[in-house]
């Protein structure tokens, strides 16, 4: 079982880390507190202005997903969401996981 893979942006040392996207493993319960919605399963967290403005972690909001069910699948999903392409040639071998 895995916890998560994520993309983060840290604008400067004086600002807290902001995780833009986080692909979480299966959890028995996640609650989107502003929507009062609780669900179980694999899910993707997204940074939102709404949660940040409410004083919560920017990436507290999440959506259920069936796009992955393993760590390698979560990393592939994260790369796809962030539009990060891998070149597949002798000078740039594919990362050592998944597809």
What does this structure look like?
It is a single chain. This protein is of the alpha+beta class and 99 residues long. Strands 1-2-3-4 form a four-stranded antiparallel beta sheet. 16% of the residues lie in helices and 35% in strands. The longest helix is centred in the C-terminal third of the chain and has 11 residues, at 71-81. It has one domain.
Could you give a short description of this structure?
The chain has 99 residues and is an alpha+beta fold.
- Choose one word for the global shape: flat
| Class of secondary structure makeup | alpha+beta
**Helix count, per DSSP?**
2
Q: Proportion of β residues?
A: 35-45%
Strand tally is: 4
Mean pLDDT: 81
User: What ranges have pLDDT less than 50 throughout 5 or more consecutive residues?
Assistant: none
* Largest sheet composition: 4 strands, antiparallel
Q: For the terminal residues, how far apart are their CA atoms? A: 19 Å
Q: From the alpha-carbon coordinates, what is the Rg to the nearest angstrom? A: 15 Å
What are the secondary-structure elements, in order, as H or E? EEEHEH
Q: Strand order across the biggest sheet? A: 1-2-3-4
Count of structural domains: 1
| Helical content (DSSP H or I, runs of 4+) | 10-25%
């Amino acid at each position: 079982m895995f916890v998560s893979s994520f993309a983060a942006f840290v604008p400067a040392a004086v600002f807290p880390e902001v995780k833009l996207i986080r692909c979480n493993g299966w959890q028995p319960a996640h609650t989107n507190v502003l929507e009062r919605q609780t669900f179980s399963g694999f899910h993707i967290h997204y940074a939102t202005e709404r949660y940040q403005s409410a004083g919560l972690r920017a990436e507290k909001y999440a959506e259920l997903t069936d796009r992955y069910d393993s760590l390698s699948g979560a990393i592939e999903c994260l790369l796809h969401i962030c539009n990060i392409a891998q070149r597949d040639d002798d000078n740039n071998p594919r990362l050592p996981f998944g597809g």
